[in-house]
Design brief:
The chain has about 475 residues and is α/β, with parallel strands linked by helices. It has helices at about 5-25, 35-40, 55-65, 85-100, 110-125, 140-155, 160-165, 180-190, 210-220, 245-255, 290-295, 310-315, 345-380, 410-425, 450-465; strands at about 135, 170-175, 195-200, 225-235, 260, 285-290, 305, 385-390, 395-400, 430-435, 440-445. Helix 10 links the parallel strand 4 and strand 5.
């Protein structure tokens, strides 16, 4: 492909992308293909000679698109959103074109300094402590691992980085039984080990119990274990339960334990002044993460990670071989702020989105999504065939179909059938969780270009399909 062909196809693909945004709600939200069907359509060896780009695009349309689940569809209300937006997509195009590897300041000063300023912007609009320091990680899973490794090094005085675990076999990490699975994975990867991850019981609303947390900490101390980290959650994945940050933070301060707060999805509501009660005590945390790529209309991946002590972070992750040494002083080399050496220019799309939307438009959209969650909650409570299964804190609604004549086991089977039938319709995509062994359907409005009529149509579809079961 030469520059002229690139220009021609670039224009055609932008037209295709614009058409995709216009037509995505007409596509099946969840891909209906069978396992292996895409694989079988792809040759088992690469071509020896170059192929015509037109044929490649046709295969993209005919093979790949039917096998995609359309996360940007207004009918996508499963899991949590992974939103994009027009300005974010355009920024990603520019990032891909420039093709920069932004590991140190010298390799792209603008990338480093824009990232530094974007983290300052996020601190301001999210009402975060001004003295915190921020960096963009790829995902909250990586950020959580970074936090656990930082805590590990703090409490070993950086000896584990240098000498391995050796005598450090008594570390303990705490989280609730509702915490994201990435914590389990991070504890394993960090070397602390799954048996040293303590799952703390939760209250009626599935938030961690501070008294139970303190009891576990005290028991471990009496047994010569070393508590090094507590992970609290603003908005658990299953139900968006909100852990009480302030009492947890005070416990961590009392026992000198690293507090990491995971706000991957729900942390985005920090942009709303009326939601600040969820964040009371956050200023006492040692580290905090939330994902603009979930609910601030920025393409995946873009995870905002903040720390109280940047030098502790840098000391944990610094690696400076001769070929990366530089004369630049008083600058950030973000390779030393996390696991990756190679870094994408993620700050550009964040900059484009925040400038294109403006804070007020971002707030307006998130408020709309929360209002739609409230509306769904009202529909469910007013319908005697359905019941709420968890407290709604923001936009996520957890419910089940319960016509009142089935056992719990039968209700689980019935609700799975309801969800599967809805998803097979292609009009809507929902996911589930388990609450005290009950199969619960999760519905999370919040896609970037969703409108109220999409939510109303979704509820109508749920009613119609439930009536057929």
């Amino acid at each position: 492909m030469d520059n002229n062909s690139f220009r021609k196809w670039g224009h055609e693909l932008v037209d295709w992308m614009a058409d995709y945004f216009d037509q995505v709600e007409n596509l099946p939200v969840k891909s209906p293909v069978k396992p292996g069907s895409i694989f079988k359509q792809i040759p088992d060896t690469p071509p020896k000679q170059s192929e015509d780009f037109e044929n490649i695009i046709e295969d993209f349309k005919n093979i790949i698109i039917p096998g995609m689940t359309h996360w940007q569809s207004p009918g996508f209300m499963a899991y949590f959103t992974a939103n994009n937006s027009y300005p974010s997509v355009l920024a990603e195009m520019l990032t891909a074109t420039i093709g920069a590897q932004c590991m140190i300041w010298d390799t792209s000063p603008a990338a480093t300094e824009l990232e530094e300023m974007m983290m300052e912007w996020l601190k301001k609009i999210m009402h975060l402590p001004s003295e915190w320091h921020g960096v963009i990680q790829d995902t909250a899973s990586t950020a959580t691992l970074v936090a656990i490794l930082s805590a590990r090094e703090k409490y070993s005085d950086f000896n584990i980085n240098n000498n391995g675990f050796k005598t450090y076999d008594n570390f303990r990490i705490y989280c609730s039984s509702e915490t994201h699975s990435s914590i389990d994975k991070a504890v394993r990867i960090s070397g602390v080990g799954s048996t040293n991850l303590v799952k703390i019981p939760t209250d009626a609303h599935l938030a961690i119990l501070p008294d139970a947390l303190e009891a576990s900490i005290l028991e471990d101390i009496q047994n010569n274990q070393k508590p090094i980290c507590v992970i609290a959650t603003i908005g658990t994945t299953g139900t968006t339960a909100m852990d009480p940050l302030e009492p947890i933070a005070l416990l961590c301060k009392k026992y000198d334990i690293w507090l990491h707060v995971d706000g991957a999805y729900a942390g985005n509501v920090g942009i709303l002044p009326e939601c600040q009660d969820f964040f009371k005590g956050l200023h006492l945390a040692d580290s905090y993460v939330f994902n603009p790529h979930k609910w601030l209309f920025v393409n995946f991946d873009c995870s905002a990670y903040f720390v109280k002590d940047k030098m502790h972070l840098i000391k944990t992750f610094n690696a400076n071989p001769e070929y990366l040494k530089t004369n630049a002083e008083n600058v950030h080399h973000y390779k030393d702020w996390g696991i990756q050496l190679g870094r994408r220019f993620r700050a550009l799309k964040l900059w484009f989105v925040m400038r294109s939307f403006g804070v007020e438009k971002m707030q307006e959209k998130i408020r709309e999504h929360i209002e739609w969650g409230k509306w769904l909650e009202i529909q469910i409570t007013q319908n005697d065939q359905f019941e709420l299964m968890a407290k709604r804190s923001i936009n996520l609604v957890c419910f089940r179909y319960n016509p009142g004549k089935y056992s719990n086991l039968e209700l689980n089977i019935l609700n799975k059938k309801l969800m599967d039938t809805i998803n097979a319709s292609g009009q809507l995509y929902l996911s589930h969780t388990k609450i005290k062994e009950a199969f619960v359907i999760r519905m999370a409005p919040g896609q970037t270009y969703q409108e109220k009529h999409h939510i109303e149509a979704a509820w109508k579809l749920i009613i119609e399909i439930s009536n057929t079961l």
